[in-house]
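Q: Here's a chain of 423 amino acids. Please give me its 3D structure as tokens.
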Amino acid sequence: MAIPTLTWSAFSYSRTTYLLLLNCVEMKIKRLLGLALPCAFGLVVSTCTNQANAAGLSNYGLIDTIPVPAGNPLQNFDVSFVDSATGTYYLSDRANSRVDIINTRTDTLIGSIGGFSGFPNGNKTIGGSNGVFVVNNSSQLFADNGDSAVKVVDLTSNTIVKSISTGGTKRADEGAYDSTDNIALVINGADSSPFGSLISTTSDTVTKTVTIPGATAGLEAPTWDSANDQFYLSVPELNGSSTDGGVAQIDPKTGAVVNVFSLPGCSPAGIAVNPTNQQLLLGCGTEGLIVNATNGHIIASLPEVGGADQVWYNPGDNHFYLGSAGSPSGPVLGIVDASTDMLLQTISTTPGAKAVSADSVNNRIFVALTPNSTVANCTNGCVGVYATVPEPSSILGTLAFGAIGAGYLLKGLNIGFVQPSAT
């Protein structure tokens, strides 16, 4: 008699929850050798499911969508930022020459800030807005623009009050903020000689220009590590090798390049740091990579979530998130446990969905989605809201495990379990 198999996809469990259930059931089920009852197997599944929930291995799903303001379809945007202190989300909407603003506690649109370069003649190297992030205790937004300038936005009125030139010829791209020293690092990665600018957020002046030795194909995103007060910057190519990039460590107070860690096979773009264990998540061209921030050693590879232009660390749930528009299986939101470095789940998104950020208060994840007809309220583009959702009813698990198990109890419990793939 053929042995049936159980797969995680049959019940739509997240991969990690399924693995925990699988191991738990295989151990506990042997204690029921004298009980040929479906309900006995149901008790096992219920017990194991409770253990999975206690371990925080929740399933994630799309819970809401927020249409962007009226205008051009949301076909071209850069990155996003959530200010968890105020519950506000900012999206660099190049398609409409603006920054879109959303309330992350109510999932409602607040409005937008205009006055940016847009997408002139399809040339993003002079387009904007680009990088967005709050500074000075959430009183201002720095929004990088196509004229090699940072637009300073007063967040009490949502208006641009100042423009800080970085002195380049192409766009000011992504940036990061050191809240200890009140210094921002803004990157001009598209200039023929790429550079970064350290900007005092108290005087709104450039205090230092930083170049990275060996950077031969631009510069990408920076992040600030609050644990050691250092910036880390994605370098997509080192010394002319198109497949080998690295990470530069920069001292915000002096502008010194402290280290450049080589990462063979990785051309990083998105970057985020978990300051509690000094680990960086990088969005490489073909994979996600977790790296030790102190020495550049590779800790884990995540081949299922490549091509992430933006990644995010959420201290609220200790998870990394990746906007993996270039994933091998198609565009996905990747969810990674920052303690175990395990990929927990991937969720299909839309082509070009690369901007991801999260609110550390309610642990909701926000992903900019391009126009499509499959997601509600998204025909012109929208922001998808993702959060934990209940795992499928344990009744299904009870019936499935119970019905199959009862038929095989007298056969020595030769139930076949299928190990899931990583997605």
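Q: Can you summarize the key feature?
A: The chain has four helices and 30 strands.
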